[in-house]
Automatic annotation (TrEMBL):
A motif ('HIGH' region) lies at residues 61-70. This is Tyrosine--tRNA ligase. It catalyses: tRNA(Tyr) + L-tyrosine + ATP = L-tyrosyl-tRNA(Tyr) + AMP + diphosphate + H(+). NCBIfam families: tyrS. The lineage of its organism: Bacteria, Pseudomonadati, Pseudomonadota, Betaproteobacteria, Burkholderiales. Residues 355-416 form the RNA-binding S4 domain. GO terms for cellular component: cytosol. InterPro entries: aa-tRNA-synth_I_CS, aa-tRNA-synth_Ic, Rossmann-like_a/b/a_fold, S4_RNA-bd, S4_RNA-bd_sf, Tyr-tRNA-ligase, Tyr-tRNA-ligase_bac-type, Tyr-tRNA-ligase_bac_2. It holds the Pfam family S4.
Length: 416
């Protein structure tokens, strides 16, 4: 780390060490830190004056639920919070009504104020599982955005050019393709940037898809005579498939409020390669410890051992150690072909001649369709009372049976 030349000689070794440590924490797992030299100067000033830096994360509550992908940025915020800095959890109740088109080819429909408030309440409650709520400043950008009025909006718009706004990738692509760009969309980066002015932000965090908006905030602070914020972008976490960004709509996500057993099993299902990405972005273990673990795996240790450590850490964070123990026991029982104690119980009507197995699987909620049931039978993925079934024409008779699809789906079915 290069220290500011004007201050380096005056800094004592303890301060230098503190700044180096803070910089290492800041950069762990990040995509980009702009401008690093400016951030070092801010850290030095904070270390020498004892005044915390103001670190901002703005979130539009467009959905109420948080998955592990969202926690990549929240984890970083908590790490900086633990260094003693002021963390500002900014809820974009005003900007949500505009709608951010980031990474989209069309406009995102704006939310109603009622939807925004309901989502924000749930979102922050879940975010508090990562952040320390006692040390988090919660703000709403309607505080300063609504009082701007028409005159304030015009004055704000005068501080940025259309040419600069059209440098944003999605605007550029849509403009070239003849896809409409509504005027209100151009206001979104300006309003997000103005948040940084209102909050006197020293550092703003966001995903890599937010880089343009974060830079607007930096430029607007200069226009308003403030020291420009630094920006820290974090990677977008891949989902369970290892390809697409983690997303509830794509079904490749792990919700932070999922049941411990489900969370644990999903983490054990990721690929050996993706596991290290999750360690880097989700684990709080020291980097040296992760590097040593990776060396052991490359030398022949079973990768599952590492996944178990990761899964236990994540489940413990969002639940507790006892839940992690139970989730691990449940997973191992299922892997041995055992039946967990807590499985759904379903009562089905028995037609004359018995109930076809594919229909039973669908009615028990183990598959979405009979076609999927047939596919799973063909792949030897269906068990009846622990025995693999390959007969597509099997009919179940009166009585109780345990049906299993794959490794994790069970139902105790009673036919009468």
């Amino acid at each position: 780390m290069s220290m500011p030349s004007a201050n380096a000689a005056a800094l004592n070794p303890e301060t230098i060490h503190a700044v180096q440590h803070a910089l290492a924490i800041t950069k762990r797992g990040c995509s980009e830190l702009l401008v690093e030299a400016d951030w070092v100067s801010k850290l030095v000033r904070s270390a020498t004056t004892g005044k915390p830096l103001r670190i901002k994360l703005g979130l539009d509550p467009t959905a109420p639920d948080i998955h592990l992908g969202h926690t990549v940025v929240l984890n970083k915020l908590r790490q900086l919070q633990d260094l003693g800095h002021t963390v500002i959890f900014l809820i974009g109740d005003f900007t949500s009504r505009i709608g951010d088109p980031s990474g989209r080819n069309a406009t995102r429909p704006p939310l109603t104020l009622e939807q925004i408030r309901a989502n924000a309440e749930t979102y922050y409650a879940q975010a508090s599982l990562v952040l320390d709520p006692e040390r988090t400043e919660i703000r709403y950008n309607s505080e300063w955005s609504e009082p701007l009025g028409a005159d304030g909006m015009i004055r704000l718009a005068a501080k940025y050019t259309l040419a600069r706004l059209l440098e944003r990738d999605d605007f550029t692509q849509r403009f070239k393709s003849g896809v409409p760009i509504a005027m209100h969309e151009l206001l979104y980066p300006l309003m997000q940037g103005y948040d940084s002015v209102a909050l006197h932000s020293d550092l703003e965090l966001g995903g890599t898809d937010q880089k343009f908006n974060l830079l607007v905030g930096r430029e607007l602070q200069k226009e308003y005579g403030q020291e420009p914020q630094c920006i820290l972008t974090m990677p977008l976490l891949e989902g369970l498939d290892g390809v697409e960004k983690m997303s509830k709509s794509k079904g490749n996500y792990i919700g932070i409020q999922e049941a411990p057993a489900s969370m644990y099993a999903k983490l054990l299902s990721i690929s050996d390669t993706l596991m290290w990405r999750y360690f880097e972005l989700l684990s709080f273990r020291p980097l040296a410890e992760i590097a040593a673990l990776r060396t052991e795996v490359e030398a022949g240790r079973n990768p599952k051992d590492a996944k178990v450590l990761l899964a236990r850490e994540i489940v413990t964070r969002f639940h507790c150690a006892a839940d992690a123990d139970a989730a691990q026991s449940d997973f191992e029982l299922r892997a041995r072909g055992g039946v967990p104690d807590d499985i759904p119980e379903v009562a089905l009507d028995l037609p004359q001649g018995g109930l076809a197995l594919p229909a039973a699987l669908k009615q028990a909620g183990l598959v979405p369709s009979t076609a999927e049931a047939l596919r799973m039978i063909e792949q030897r993925g269906v068990r009846v009372d622990g025995a693999v079934v390959e007969d597509r024409t099997l009919r179940l008779q009166a009585g109780a049976v345990v049906l299993q699809v794959g490794k994790r789906k069970f139902a105790r079915v009673t036919l009468a």
